[in-house]
């Protein structure tokens, strides 16, 4: 009976841990970097960064700069509002935002052909991938232009209505 209770406790812990990981995965993860818009040029950006303990990683574009703070956690589930408020109090800082981790997702660049009969050609692409790899070939730029296909079949039905006049 003790083994069953221990197994039940272990199972409960696993379920709770899985639920917590899913919750953390769904929340934003803040980094120790900020995007900052500063009026006054690179010298002013360097001064503000130095004064507040940031490292200025340089100009991104226009008057936007990339700051990193060594004393802020590299990854955290909550933003560092104290550092953010101090930056915002600077008169030359027009805008600041603590950066969050963005999840990357692979995108498929393939688009179905514009041929109106393509959906009827089920054998060219199937969900079970038992197809002719046409999507891969088309993505590589192969079109079939200039290709001649010959089918040799020695089992021709010479009496078939489609063939009888040409046989």
Automatic annotation (TrEMBL):
Annotated keywords: Cleavage on pair of basic residues, Glycoprotein, Hydrolase, Protease, Serine protease, Signal, Zymogen
Pfam families assigned: S8_pro-domain (PF16470)
GO cellular component annotations of the record: Golgi membrane; trans-Golgi network
Keyword Hydrolase: yes
MF terms (GO), sorted A to Z: serine-type endopeptidase activity
InterPro entries xref list: Peptidase_S8/S53_dom_sf, Peptidase_S8_Asp-AS, S8_pro-domain, S8_pro-domain_sf
A Gene Ontology biological process term: peptide hormone processing
Residue span(s) of domain Peptidase S8 pro-domain: 33-107
Signal peptide (residue range): 1-26
Keyword Signal listed: yes
Superkingdom, natural source: Eukaryota
Sequence similarity: Belongs to the peptidase S8 family.
Name under which the protein is recorded: Peptidase S8 pro-domain domain-containing protein
Native species: Pogonophryne albipinna
């Amino acid at each position: 009976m003790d083994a069953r209770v221990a197994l039940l406790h272990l199972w409960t812990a696993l379920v709770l841990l899985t639920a917590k990981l899913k919750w953390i995965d769904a929340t934003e993860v803040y980094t120790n970097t900020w995007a900052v818009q500063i009026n006054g040029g690179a010298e002013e950006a360097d001064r503000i960064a130095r004064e507040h303990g940031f490292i200025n990683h340089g100009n991104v574009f226009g008057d936007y700069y990339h700051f990193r703070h060594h004393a802020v956690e590299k990854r955290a589930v909550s933003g560092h509002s104290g550092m953010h408020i101090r930056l915002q109090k600077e008169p030359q800082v027009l805008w600041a935002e603590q950066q969050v981790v963005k999840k990357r997702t692979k995108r498929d660049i393939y688009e179905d052909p514009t041929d109106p009969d393509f959906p009827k050609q089920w054998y060219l692409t199937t969900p079970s991938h038992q197809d002719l790899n046409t999507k891969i070939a088309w993505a590589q730029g192969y079109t079939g232009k200039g290709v001649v296909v010959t089918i040799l079949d020695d089992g021709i039905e010479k009496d078939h209505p489609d063939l009888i006049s040409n046989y």
